[in-house]
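S1.2 Input.
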Amino acid sequence: MFNKFREKLKGLFTSRKIDEAFFEELEDTLIEGDLGARLTDEIVEVLRKEAKAERAKTVEDLQQIMKRLLDPYVKTASVDLAPGGLNVFMILGVNGVGKTTSIAKMASWYRKGGKKVLLAAADTFRAAAVDQLDIHATRLGMRIVKQSSGSDPGAVVYDALTSALAQGDDLVLADTAGRMHNKENLMRELQKIDKIIAGRGIPAERYRKLLVIDATTGQNGLSQAMLFNSAVHLDGVILTKYDSAAKGGALVQIGQQLGLPILFVGTGERYEDIHPFDKDEFLNALVGLEA
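S1.3 Output.
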């Protein structure tokens, strides 16, 4: 994952003398990696002080200090379903990030864990989105609740919850629109779905609003998180395209500014190419430490 950024950072740590020029180049590298100018300034300033106070002598000393400084900003959360009844995941994200595919991967992942999963095709704004989720449901042999294109998304979610509660399902994964005629309409539609789910008596501990972000988009990921969080108060993030093209720094900013944990990462096209987020692995890669 994000090998180019990792190798550049690792090369910087190993090839330069630890002096002012080193710290200046480190700042440039971290900003290029989407850590953001303000957070980069804070991290590098503390790194200077910590390296001096701890008399850091080796490359790994510096990398371990930097990993420790970034650790509080990277959040994780359990991917286990809350006990006691139906869990609901409202899945959000702009078009093109792999939202519908991520839903299918999560459905497969939870079913392998013995859970009964129902899909809700609530992105009725795009006929292709309903069709795509329907194809995944057929391939997975999984139930889906859908209506015709242009139907009320809230009604789809309401019907899905009714069906899931009646059938004793463990999890509803609700796809939602990523684009409408304008941003305000989209946010209002998502808020309406949010109210419908809460109104069906799904308690907070069994209801999560999860944003899908393309890990290669950098700062755009942070902007998307801020937008959707302002509308429905997100509970976490799912990353797609978690590979060598991703830089990773924006994820630190999402944790720092919004406190949002990362639950899953998608690493390929197959249903099994999804994994719970590994914080230690991520931080090691971010600072250039060997796995």
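S1.4 Remarks. Strands lie at 75-76, 87-92, 117-121, 143-145, 171-175, 207-214, 236-240, 261-266, 274-276.
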